[in-house]
Write a structure and sequence with these properties.
Layout: E1 7-18, E2 24-29, E3 41-46, E4 57-60, E5 63-65, E6 68-74, H1 78-83, E7 91-98, E8 110-115, H2 120-127, E9 133-139, H3 147-152, E10 161-165, H4 169-182, E11 188-192, H5 195-208, E12 211-215, E13 231-233, E14 239-241, E15 248-250
Parallel strand pairs: 8-9, 8-11, 9-10, 11-12
Antiparallel strand pairs: 1-2, 1-7, 2-6, 3-4, 3-7, 5-6, 12-15, 13-14
Helix pairs in contact: 4-5
The structure holds flavin-adenine dinucleotide and FE2/S2 (inorganic) cluster.
Length: 258
């Protein structure tokens, strides 16, 4: 997980479209020409944001290709509501690629564990996934609201794609537990989603000695290690900046109280 040089660029919006539910939005910006790795993120701040929205907002790189830099986000507050109103031709200041990426294991099975919008970084990752990759996706909204799931399914065999509606939380946790236990000593899990889900992943990885990486979505202000707004505690008792040393961490390094 070596550092990647990061850049600040003004990028043009190519499209900004909601899914049927319309709280989920696909934003495509012109391709900045960066070399990125799956799990890295960007900080976005449209040029027309005034002093009422000072800080840029962090988002996973959902995909990057000749079609552009794609972000898949959910409207949860003021910033994302404004981002959802972007129209083609507008300019967004983008810092990236930031942070540490997921590390795939080409020799052993990789289980991608996504909860809700945590599916975003796995679109990019699935493109480069080795043969033994599977996915478990937990979601609250209907599956068709997440076109990312169908895209990932074009790279991973359908029998290796499993999904579970979050409404049945017990079923999701039981399935997580079984899948993490089954990988003990033979593979690893890569997880992204809400913190309660990541804590469950952390608990079962430690319990069964399963290798795992989790991507934290701690709130961030600067995104580049200057404000201490995003710290996480490690098992050594240190506070680490999740924007620089993360957002992807080895589960064994995080102190969430086993
Ligand atoms: C590294 C990283 C990658 C991310 N990738 C994605 C992504 O791909 N897609 C996506 O939809 N979201 C992603 N997020 C979360 C996203 O940054 C927040 O939802 C967004 O910043 C909220 O901005 P807002 O102004 O709309 O919300 P605010 O008005 O600031 O807050 C509205 C509500 O959202 C909550 N909130 C704000 N930030 C976060 C956060 N980081 N985690 C959990 N709750 C939060 C607040 O507590 C509040 O309840 C990511 C966050 C990080 C740190
Ligand atoms: S967000 Fe400022 S140090 Fe991480």
């Amino acid at each position: 997980m070596s550092a990647t040089p990061s850049f600040c660029q003004e990028l043009t919006v190519l499209s900004c479209t909601g899914t049927k539910d319309s709280s989920l939005v696909n934003l495509v910006l012109e391709n900045p020409g960066w070399t990125c790795r799956p799990g890295q993120f960007v900080m976005l701040r449209p040029l027309d944001w005034g002093t009422e929205l000072v800080w840029a907002r962090p988002f996973s790189i959902c995909d990057i290709s000749s079609h552009g830099l794609r972000i898949f986000f959910q409207v949860v507050g003021r910033g994302t509501a404004r981002l959802a109103q972007l129209t083609p031709g507008q300019k967004v200041v983008v810092w990236g690629p930031l942070g540490q990426s997921f590390v795939l294991d080409n020799e052993r099975p990789n289980l991608l564990l996504a909860g809700g919008m945590g599916i975003a970084p796995f679109v990019f990752l699935a493109k480069s996934s080795p043969a033994h990759t599977s996915m478990l996706f937990g979601h609250r909204l209907p599956l068709q609201e997440y076109p990312a799931f169908q895209e990932i399914a074009t790279h991973i065999p359908s029998e290796a794609m499993q999904q579970c509606n979050h409404e049945d939380l017990i079923c999701f946790e039981e399935t997580l537990h079984e899948r993490i236990k089954a990988l003990s000593g033979v593979g690893q899990v890569l997880a992204c989603g809400p913190e309660p889900m990541l804590r469950v992943v952390h608990k079962y990885c430690l319990q069964h000695g399963t290798d795992g990486q989790v991507s934290l979505e701690n709130r961030m202000a600067c995104g580049v290690g200057a404000c201490l707004g995003c710290v996480a505690r490690t098992t050594q008792g240190d506070l680490v900046q999740s924007c620089v040393q993360g957002p992807v961490f080895d589960v064994r390094h995080l102190d969430w109280g086993a």
